[in-house]
Write a structure and sequence with these properties.
By secondary structure, the chain is of the alpha/beta class. It has helices spanning 3-8, 22-34, 49-57, 70-80, 105-117, 137-149, 169-183, and strands spanning 13-15, 42-44, 63-68, 86-91, 95-99, 127-132. It has a two-stranded parallel ribbon. Strands 3-4 form a two-stranded parallel sheet. A two-stranded parallel sheet has the order 5-6.
Length: 184
């Protein structure tokens, strides 16, 4: 949501993707190159947070678009202090959903399960809690359980896999703890 508008406006873009998913940056740049984008207009950079902070503070970039944690946003603000450059910060996320009494139940179940499991639940805009009208609750739970049970955990390079691994051991521990709490 930041790359295409920047390129369309005639800007060069350097993507520093999350260190948790470095191949995504490489694949995005390769896709744009294959589509005919001029060499060097869109590049990726694998670098530490400190290095990125130095690039921002040192004047190497004129705009920063960032999606991530509040802590990361604060680091960008600190690095950009006094430079008067534009910044677009999409920070954190704790996204709820509400299923109203007049909702299309199948559509709600499908989109909310997808929203919760997108990127194995590792998305700042992923659905984290769902409020359901009493009149739909039981059927909604049944549908979402069935959809969830259809997911296949495995190697993300395997076409049969519909749910890949989490990228950090602490994320796996957090999900395991949530599942244990939910089972009580």
């Amino acid at each position: 949501n930041s790359i295409v508008p920047a390129l369309a406006a005639g800007n060069a873009v350097i993507l520093k993707h999350s260190e948790q998913t470095p191949l995504c940056a490489e694949q995005l740049v390769a896709a744009f190159a294959a589509a005919g984008l001029a060499a060097g207009v869109f590049q990726y950079l694998h670098a530490s947070h400190d290095t990125i902070g130095q690039l921002i503070a040192g004047g190497a970039v004129d705009y920063v678009a960032f999606t991530g944690s509040v802590h990361g946003g604060a680091a960008i603000e600190a690095a950009a202090a006094g430079r008067f450059i534009g910044r677009g910060l999409e920070l954190g996320g704790n996204d709820p959903a509400y299923v109203r009494a007049d909702a299309d139940l199948q559509h709600a179940a499908e989109t909310l399960v997808d929203g919760a499991f997108y990127n194995a639940g590792q998305s700042c805009c992923g659905i984290q809690r769902i409020y359901v009208h009493d009149s739909l609750y039981k059927e909604f739970v049944e549908r979402t359980v069935a959809l969830t049970e259809a997911y296949r955990l495995g190697n993300p390079l395997d076409p049969q896999t519909t749910l890949g691994p989490v990228v950090r051991a602490r994320a796996a521990a957090r999900y395991t703890a949530r599942a244990a709490t939910a089972a009580k």
